[in-house]
Amino acid sequence: MRLFAPGGAPHFCVRGRTNLRILRENWHKVTEEEIRDLLDALWLRYEDASFIEDDPISVPHRFTGRHDREVAGFLAATIAWGNRRMIVRNGRRMMELMGDAPYEFVMEASEQALERLDRFVHRTFNGQDLTAFVLALRRMGRTWGGLGNFFETRYEATGDMRCVLADFRREFFACDHPARCEKHVAAIERGASCKRLNMFLRWMVRDSSRGVDFGLWQRIPASALYLPLDLHSGNVARALGLLDRRQNDWRAVEEVTTALRRFDAADPVKYDFALFGAGVNGAMTK
């Protein structure tokens, strides 16, 4: 069974949407070339500036400076779970509490200014967490000259983003902090999927030519990135036969990223737009 009919119309469709159940049952009949064609079509559809407004990446897109985008992006990615509208709204609220100057606030905010953060809450991430994160970012800024320099330097030293993810968490929590904060940065050494960190890395590393990601950290190649795996992208990846593992953990991230590298070794994570967009925006149905 072919994924596309001779005229270009996709099979497995119900009212113009790819039906995941039918596709899941028949994926073994689909050629790898057809899967690549589908993923490329979905990638081109969703990596578009129109994607930004309703996505957490809209928070760092409010700024033009590298350091502002790093701080805003990291904090927005940190709270990126739950309802996307709520994530975007609360991400913008964080920036407002920082006077819409996130890097300056991180590096220079007084004790009195930090108290403004007490009123912030996003699900289980509260003002105490946000204050601790600001202070950790301040220390990293003073030690490393910014988040980007840390990630780029550690990648150049190790050549492996898995090591860099583990190094980052250790460095971020190296100073005194409330123990409750640690749940908000995933631990790769414990098998976590690190979805939010991988998403943040996608934003910072991938080329900016399509106007969505920023391409700020050019000392890290896009080929080194891992998929920000979540419920939506995982469901679509399994339906396409790109992922067998049932849990959305680090082993699943490795499996699906390896599969995506067959389609584009230089930029496998571009297919995050395809998998997530198809799953969350209804291009594919259950």
TrEMBL record:
State the superkingdom. Answer: Bacteria
Q: What is this protein called?
A: TIGR02757 family protein
Which organism is this entry from?
Answer: Candidatus Tidjanibacter faecipullorum
